[in-house]
Amino acid sequence: MKKILVSSCLCGEKCKYNGGNNYNIQVEAYCKDKEVIKVCPEVLGGLPIPRHPAEIVGGTAQDVLNGKAKILNNQGEDVTEAFLKGAQTVLKIAKDYGIRQAILKAKSPSCGRGKVYNGNFEGVLVEGNGITSQLLLEEGIEIKTEEDL
Ligand code: SF4
Predict the structure, then answer these.
(1) 96 alpha carbon to ligand 1 midpoint, in Å?
(2) What's the mean pLDDT in 105-133?
(3) If pLDDT is split at 50, 70 and 90, which confidence band does 108 have?
(4) Cα–Cα dist 142/123, whole Å
(5) Which atom of ligand 1 is nearest to the CA of 43?
């Protein structure tokens, strides 16, 4: 059975910043014939539930990985370390399981692919990826979001 990495919140786990989930019926249908490895990078990075929402500030996910930009929460606290730790942990899990494809949550500063919020906490999207998505893409792992299904 094909193994696939999926954002835990899309599977109904209450790991969102506000304690909720992002259960998605299309994701469930897509995963029916696959072995699902659920991951929440932010929780794996040590952040609590609930937590303050965070955005990439001052650059792209690639800039964050290169130490040139940060992740701040809406209180102005720097949570870059936790996001990086979570991304590295997810990458290790992907490698351990031989994962080649992931379904990750759109627009998240961790899981988003293609579009993320602009860092001003004003609900405006810009082109870019979340930190975990960026790291997985750089390893050649295919990423879809629930919006692609
Ligand atoms: S989008 Fe990613 S980091 Fe955010 S709650 Fe879902 S799995 Fe966790």
Answers:
(1) 20
(2) 98
(3) very high
(4) 26
(5) 8
- What residue's CA is closest to ligand 1, atom 4? 16
Inter-residue contact 132 to 113 (CB < 8 Å): no
How many angstroms separate the alpha carbon of residue 16 from the centre of ligand 1?
A: 6
Can you spell out the DSSP letters for 18-72? TS-----HHHHHHTTTSEEEEE-HHHHTT--SS---EEEESS-HHHHHTTSSEEE
Residue nearest to atom 5 of ligand 1 (CA): 16
What residues does ligand 1 touch, defined as CB less than 6 Å away? 7-9, 15-16, 40-42, 105, 108, 110-111
pTM of the model: 0.98
Q: Read off the tokens for 30.
A: 């897509």
| Spatial contact of 130 and 112, defined as CB atoms under 8 Å apart | yes
- pLDDT the model gives residue 127: 98
Q: What is residue 112's predicted lDDT score, i.e. its pLDDT?
A: 98
What confidence score (pLDDT) does residue 136 get?
98
Cβ–Cβ < 8 Å for 141, 132: no
108 Cα to the center of ligand 1, angstroms: 7
